Amino acid sequence: MPEYNPNVTTHIITDAPEGTTLRALGVKRLKDIPEHIPTLKWSWVVSGINHKNSLSKEEFDARLDGDILFLHAAFHERMDAGRKPQPIAAPSFRKKGKERAAEQNRGDGPSHGVASTSAATQDVPALFSESEGDVPAHSSRPFGALISPPTSPRRSPVHGQSSKENNHDPLAEFYPQAHKQRQQEDEWSSLGDLDADASEDVGTDSDAGDPEPHPPAPRQKRGWTCDKKEVQAKGDCPNQDIIDKLTQLMELHKAKMGDDDHWRAFSYSKSIRALRNYPRRIKTYEEARGIRGVGEKTAKKIEEILQTGDLQRIKYEKTKDVEVTRLFQGIYGVGQSIAFKWYSAGCRTLDDLRAGKGGVKLSPVQEIGLQYYDDLNDRMPRAEAKAIFELIKPIALSIDPKLYIEIMGSYRRGKADCGDIDILITRPVDDGNTHRGVLPCLLQKLHAADIITEDLALPEDPDDLEAIYRGLCHVPDVKGSKRRRIDFLSVPWTARGAALLYYTGDDIFNRAIRMKANVLGYSLNQKGLFGNIVRDPRDRRIKMNAGVLVASETEEEIFKILGVPWQEPHERVRG
Description:
Elements (H helix, E strand, L loop, with lengths): L11 E2 L4 H8 L13 E2 L2 H8 L6 H9 L31 H9 L56 H6 L7 H9 L1 H6 L6 H4 L39 H15 L4 H18 L8 H5 L6 H13 L3 H6 L2 H9 L7 H9 L5 H6 L8 H8 L1 H4 L3 E2 H18 L4 E4 L1 H4 L4 E2 L2 E6 L11 H11 L3 E6 L9 E7 L10 E7 L5 H9 L2 H13 L3 E3 L2 E4 L3 E2 L2 E5 L4 E4 L3 H8 L13
Parallel strand pairs: 1-2, 6-9
Antiparallel strand pairs: 3-5, 4-6, 7-8, 8-9, 10-11, 11-14, 12-13
């Protein structure tokens, strides 16, 4: 339901903090929620799905609305809300030892080879059985192999009853959403700073299944990546050789298609970030394993680099198709799909593309990317980005002295080199004027001054207050000056804070703060922070309304509302 109504509501599902939940419900205190309405975490829904087909309808209803509720309580003060004590038959494990032994002799007991420690628990009613979905999100219990397999067969749904039961099932409409959420679990939790190997272990690996030679080091408390300021190490990194090898492996996985390689690349990026900020030289496997963000398999690879100076996995992953498609993806406007398509057509070199081998045809933008391939794949020094910006800014101010023009991206984060130049353009509206029409006028002047050389993407409406231009530029009148990527982003004055936050980055910080906003019931993008968002219960990625603008003019107000400690641009580096 879109709005909370205590006369109709039966359950409240929330993973948000107390304050956010109270605002969404329109009440001041948790005590204002009627005692018969439980406030539960999303894990309660997942728990119901896990036991949907293994319980009878009576047991299923008892599980959903019985004593099991306290395991999924969203708030400690309301652990008893909605509980309905039910009489439960004495569990069968209270049988005398002789009766239990007789059952085992008849073959009714546990199968041979099962540890005796499970004998007293195997007959516990399904109402109290646990699965991974039953454990509250804050539980610290490690997940491992089951002590023994269940001795009772799972009940299959009876034909002709499923539709009838679903009509009375309060969770039926949430099943598709829960299944999708479980598939996205790695992405959500990795942004909350889970171990790097949570995603690295996807699929098969060369050392998959090997026993752990060392116990894992204790882990720190998890939190949001965007909430922790990270002081970047100064001077030479003592583990640069390790970082270089892991970076090579990460780039190979990035060039491949498929979710497994995507998550491995993401995992290595987290490990590399941790190693870059580690203050001393790593000497042992145990030391590597104890670093937050370095998992079991990555620690093994670090140990190999320490012992041999090399990493054999790189040679294994560096196949011909990966090398060629990585080469092709260096062309502006070419992604994985196009690169593999060209490889399948028989192209192996950039000259093959120039010759149109296999019937390959490049778009005008791709031809520009191919022509300046080396320039565009070479990062520009910070000084060069500054020189180009200082040429552009006075030309822009000559059009309108009240323009607000700022360089963003890695330059604003204080990086020593930049991949491209991102420039924000807006204007205060206190005098009744705007920056409408400034962008096309500026582009014309920059072309005339030989600063902008090629256009890659023109905005649909250049006169709009919100427009994006992409092109190439260089330092004019300098022999041998390289082509550099440049983007102009024109935004309304009221959205300048959200735009600065979005286009400053870095990518990992942005993903984390947007995900935190999502969990808190907001939506964050380059236009602002929006509240009162109603999402499709079957797919939380789909918004049912635009929401209400909460903050957009300054970065500070967005940070404050989301509970993120203020960080200067150079403190937002996570990658």
